[in-house]
Amino acid sequence: MSEIVRFGVSIPESLLERFDQYLQRKHYRNRSEAIRDLIREKLVEEEWRESGREVVGTITYVYDHHKRELTDRLIDLQHDHYAQIISTQHVHLDHDRCLEVIIVRGAVSAIRDLADRIKALKGILHCSLSMTTTGKNLV
């Protein structure tokens, strides 16, 4: 880990008051840690804008497993993207619906492509891509 550097920030008092309220709601002990988290969040968002960058994330979706051929299409997609898939978790929500979480790692463009292809399948009730970082560029 790198050395800690102190610096000052000038902001309007009303913005600081709102920030302090945010700190309380989120259970931060001090402003410094909250500011570090906000900076990290923006840097991770920037990583996801660079299509060739290696990133990690999850694709979470709910679907009707009775929908004709949907399960086969999902399996085919996963096999087509095996290089980006680290792991999958399958949960039976009830008799008709299932939830799957796919942990992915790879180029932003490939991961977005997989999520978009899943989302477009008939029978997918909801699909979301949650993006994070490998952490290599945050140290």
TrEMBL record:
Keywords: DNA-binding, Metal-binding, Nickel, Transcription, Transcription regulation. Ni(2+) binds at residues 79, 90, 92, 98. GO terms for molecular function: DNA binding; DNA-binding transcription factor activity; nickel cation binding. Its cofactor is Ni(2+). Residues 56-132 form the Transcription factor NikR nickel binding C-terminal domain. Residues 5-46 form the Ribbon-helix-helix protein CopG domain. Binds 1 nickel ion per subunit. It holds the Pfam family NikR_C. GO terms for biological process: response to nickel cation. Belongs to the transcriptional regulatory CopG/NikR family. Transcriptional regulator. NCBIfam families: PRK00630.1, PRK01002.1, PRK02967.1, PRK04460.1. HAMAP family: NikR. This is Putative nickel-responsive regulator. It comes from Thermosulfurimonas marina. The lineage of its organism: Bacteria, Pseudomonadati, Thermodesulfobacteriota, Thermodesulfobacteria, Thermodesulfobacteriales. The gene is nikR.
